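Structure in, sequence out. Go:
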């Protein structure tokens, strides 16, 4: 049989009908592309990435990275009243990242539906075909370099925005827990800068004092001074009453060792036989400290005593003067703050 005989239809009527049907299908496919897509073999479907979508994804990733970087900068600068800006920066970054992933998943990553028979997992040929399929997955992306750079920038920006809040997991005290203004010879003064004399502290009351010349906002400056009966003193080993509690006067850091609130209450019994012993109390969570025993914790969540300040009394003026620095680190007992042995 000649080549012409092989290619020619045997039935002219059938050839005309088939040609008419194919023409009608091509015309319908031209009018409705989805119709042609639906008739394709699923194993042959492969949609290329959209170049416009690639640009949109890149811009969204850059926006996410920029917003994350802005959050990082605002957190480090940390001036007052920036909470709304921090929320806006972080929210924008996460929203832009989510939008970029959605657009990339729908319009950038080539969409391919593959239907194949399940083969044994150990089949080397199947493993090689799977590897080739994975390698071919990125062929439809024309701006891979741009997208990779934008994705890296977004990862750094958003990642930094998510990591930097870890610095706020504890009180921001830094080295201020050790660097205090108290030194030997520093006078104890009131909020107006006037020296506090020993006679100003009456049993049953407490006085708030500050290091002379230091800011009242300094974490290590404020102390509470109370007078307890000398016979009731039971200070920790190494703290001689003459050097730490002259005439029963004791001074402790005013910053609670639980959460950093100000110790602002002094419980003093009015009827000793039935009421508990004198104590310094933090009003935030009711941590309670015994001033006669080195501010030992007798109730509440505080993890360690209040650091004690050694006192001396100026014999000429009767003014209270620091005999040195605190017995330990001031502030909340986070991590290894208790480095002073208190």
């Amino acid at each position: 049989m000649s080549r012409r005989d092989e290619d020619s239809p045997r039935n002219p009527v059938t050839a005309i009908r088939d040609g008419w049907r194919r023409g009608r299908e091509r015309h319908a496919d031209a009018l409705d592309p989805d119709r042609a897509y639906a008739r394709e073999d699923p194993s042959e479907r492969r949609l290329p990435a959209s170049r416009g979508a690639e640009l949109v994804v890149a811009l969204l990733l850059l926006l996410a990275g920029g917003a994350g970087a802005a959050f990082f900068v605002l957190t480090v600068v940390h001036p007052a009243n920036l909470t709304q800006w921090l929320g806006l920066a972080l929210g924008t970054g996460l929203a832009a990242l989510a939008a970029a992933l959605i657009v990339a998943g729908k319009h950038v990553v080539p969409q391919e539906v593959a239907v194949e028979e399940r083969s044994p997992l150990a089949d080397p040929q199947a493993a090689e075909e799977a590897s080739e399929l994975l390698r071919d997955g990125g062929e439809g992306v024309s701006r891979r370099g741009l997208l990779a750079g934008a994705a890296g920038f977004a990862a750094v920006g958003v990642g930094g925005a998510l990591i930097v809040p870890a610095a706020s997991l504890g009180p921001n005290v830094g080295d201020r827990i050790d660097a205090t203004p108290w030194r030997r010879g520093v006078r104890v003064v009131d909020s107006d800068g006037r020296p506090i004399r020993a006679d100003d502290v009456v049993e049953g009351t407490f006085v708030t004092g500050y290091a002379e010349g230091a800011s009242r906002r300094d974490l290590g400056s404020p102390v509470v001074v109370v007078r307890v009966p000398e016979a009731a003193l039971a200070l920790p080993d190494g703290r001689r009453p003459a050097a730490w509690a002259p005439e029963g006067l004791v001074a402790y850091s005013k910053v609670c060792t639980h959460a950093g609130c100000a110790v602002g209450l002094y419980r003093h019994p009015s009827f000793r036989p039935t009421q508990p012993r004198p104590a310094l109390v933090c009003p935030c969570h009711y941590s309670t400290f015994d001033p006669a025993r080195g501010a030992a914790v007798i109730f509440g969540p505080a993890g360690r005593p209040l650091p004690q300040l050694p006192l001396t009394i100026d014999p000429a003026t009767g003014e209270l003067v620091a005999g040195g620095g605190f017995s330990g680190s001031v502030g909340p007992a986070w991590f290894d703050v208790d480095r002073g042995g208190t």
